[in-house]
């Protein structure tokens, strides 16, 4: 298998960073293809914890080339801070490539993210306020600044000036706030450009060369299926394509090159920010998941909303991304529940539906239809073989496979690299 796409199958934070790090051992290239520093991927390698936002989780291996693809929105200040953080932790980052066509997050994107959220009032999305949405807006409006523009002083000055006229009009005349100054932004961003210049590359070409040479390429998604701008719980979504197809667009690689799609999926469900969540638990069970699973955002520190596993959205994720394998994570967190519930359909008015509805108005009204399974009390974190899991835990995984039609090829039972049960080859 040469090229494998790894994506989040729920609302993000499924453990993509951990699984990427686990699989990256066999990869030559690890590529991020969408999102930005709204992502927070926590990786525990050799007992040490690393928090990554923009740089692919493959970076912890010295010999892997890591790529930030054209579909990513890059805040260069954050990128440089992350590089410094890794250097301080003794991680070598010399093999990082940055697509020349990736979009740049500018200070006015962050300001706008905050102002727009405030203006939405009770309809707020609960964004990470990192400027992600506004940066993708400018990309779609064809006024965005790309990494390659930053490297050309005149081009950058021209684009920044034109953007500031528009954005300052908005800030002053619509929102009644202060205008941003050209000089400070220009100087700061030229400074960032100098530091990243040597990493800028034609990343699509680098990936193609690698695939043609028979090397292994792992595409690391950020966010999750239900946060996809087209296929998620719109408008409570991010502004990019976290589904598998996003890898083709966001890395410049054709779909016939992709051999496998791994859906990372938690053994239960979490969501950060606003928006519908049918299996959400607002009771003690939800508290238990949050406490046992340390469900607090890596990027914003917000408590994550927790709920039972939802097989309807799992099957939907399989559909929209063509998931061939699941990596089920955090099974260990379910230890201690007498009964586990799995949502197998939704009740809407008097009807039962089994597919994710097209209408978000209907999705908001969906009440979960559950089936129940016996839980287990044993600690799973030391188990290394599937057959050594308590029978109830094995059955829970087998039921997820039955309901989705997809094998759970990896099962994670702890944050560490070694806490991963492998049930088949995928890379
Ligand atoms: P990502 O955004 O998909 O990479 O996920 P996050 O890193 O935001 O959140 C997942 C959290 O769960 C991280 O703190 C991981 O270290 C942790 N984690 C991943 N897999 C497991 C697992 O199987 N069990 C437990 N207990 N923690 C895990
Ligand atoms: P990882 O990669 C979970 C959510 C935000 C908000 C919505 C839009 O760690 O799984 P944005 O700032 O992107 O405009 O916010 O998307 N969100 C995430 N939730 N994990 C993430 O990333 C997320 N990135 C964005 O909470 O609801
Ligand atoms: Mg995360």
What are the salient characteristics of this protein?
single chain; 427 residues; alpha/beta; Adenylosuccinate Synthetase, Chain A, domain 3; Adenylosuccinate Synthetase, subunit A, domain 2; 2 domains; ten-stranded mixed β-sheet; 13 helices; 20 strands; binds guanosine-5'-diphosphate; binds 6-O-phosphoryl inosine monophosphate; binds magnesium ion
What is the highest CATH level, the class of the largest domain? Alpha Beta
Residue windows where pLDDT falls under 50 for at least 5 positions: none
Q: What is the mean predicted local confidence, pLDDT?
A: 97
**With helices defined by DSSP (H or I, 4 residues minimum), what is the helix count?**
13
Estimate what percentage of residues fall within beta strands: 15-25%
| Measured distance between first and last alpha carbons | 5 Å
Q: How does the helix and strand content classify structurally?
A: alpha/beta
DSSP, total strands:
20
Q: Largest beta sheet, briefly?
A: 10 strands, mixed
Based on CA atoms alone, the radius of gyration comes out at 21 Å
Order of neighbouring strands in the sheet with most strands:
9-7-5-2-10-1-11-15-19-20
Name the CATH superfamily assignment of the largest domain.
Adenylosuccinate Synthetase, subunit A, domain 3
Helix content: 25-40%
CATH architecture annotation of the largest domain: Alpha-Beta Complex
The name CATH uses for the topology of the largest domain is Adenylosuccinate Synthetase, Chain A, domain 3
What small molecules accompany the polymer chains? guanosine-5'-diphosphate, 6-O-phosphoryl inosine monophosphate, magnesium ion
Number of domains: 2
Large-scale geometry: globular
């Amino acid at each position: 298998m040469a090229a494998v796409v790894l994506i989040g199958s729920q609302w993000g934070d499924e453990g993509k960073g951990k699984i990427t790090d686990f699989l990256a051992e066999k990869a030559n290239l690890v590529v991020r293809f969408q999102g930005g520093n709204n992502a927070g991927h926590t990786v525990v390698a050799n007992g040490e914890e690393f928090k990554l936002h923009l740089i692919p989780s493959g970076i912890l291996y010295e010999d892997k080339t890591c790529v930030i693809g054209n579909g990513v929105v890059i805040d260069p200040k954050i990128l440089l801070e992350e590089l410094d953080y890794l250097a301080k932790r003794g991680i070598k980052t010399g093999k990082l490539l940055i697509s020349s066509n990736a979009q740049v997050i500018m200070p006015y994107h962050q300001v706008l993210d905050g102002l727009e959220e405030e203006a939405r009032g009770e309809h707020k999305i609960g964004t990470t306020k990192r400027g992600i949405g506004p940066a993708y807006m400018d990309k779609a409006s064809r006024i965005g600044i790309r990494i390659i523009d930053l490297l050309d002083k005149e081009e950058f000055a021209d684009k920044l000036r034109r953007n500031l006229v528009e954005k300052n009009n908005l800030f002053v005349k619509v929102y009644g706030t202060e205008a941003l100054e050209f000089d400070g932004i220009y100087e700061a961003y030229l400074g960032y450009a100098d530091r990243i210049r040597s990493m800028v590359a034609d990343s699509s070409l680098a990936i193609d060369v690698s695939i043609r040479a028979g090397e292994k390429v792992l595409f690391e998604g950020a966010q999750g299926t239900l946060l996809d701008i087209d296929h998620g719980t719109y408008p409570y979504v991010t502004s990019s394509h976290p589904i598998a197809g996003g890898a083709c667009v966001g890395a410049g690689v054709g779909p016939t090159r992709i051999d496998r799609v791994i859906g990372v999926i938690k053994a239960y469900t979490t969501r950060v920010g606003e928006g519908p969540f049918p299996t959400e638990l607002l009771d003690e069970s939800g508290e238990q998941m949050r406490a046992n699973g340390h469900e607090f955002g890596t990027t914003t520190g917000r408590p994550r909303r927790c709920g039972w596993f939802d097989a309807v959205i799992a099957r939907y994720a399989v559909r929209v991304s063509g998931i061939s394998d699941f990596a089920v994570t955090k099974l260990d967190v379910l230890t201690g529940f007498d009964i586990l519930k799995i949502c197998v359909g939704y009740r809407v008015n008097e009807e039962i539906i089994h597919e994710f509805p097209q209408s978000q108005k209907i999705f908001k009204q969906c009440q979960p239809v559950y089936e129940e399974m016996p839980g287990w009390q044993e600690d799973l974190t030391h188990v290394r073989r599937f057959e050594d899991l308590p029978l109830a835990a094995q059955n829970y995984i087998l039921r997820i496979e039955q309901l989705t039609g997809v094998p759970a090829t990896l099962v994670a039972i702890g944050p560490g690299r070694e806490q991963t049960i492998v049930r088949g080859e995928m890379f």
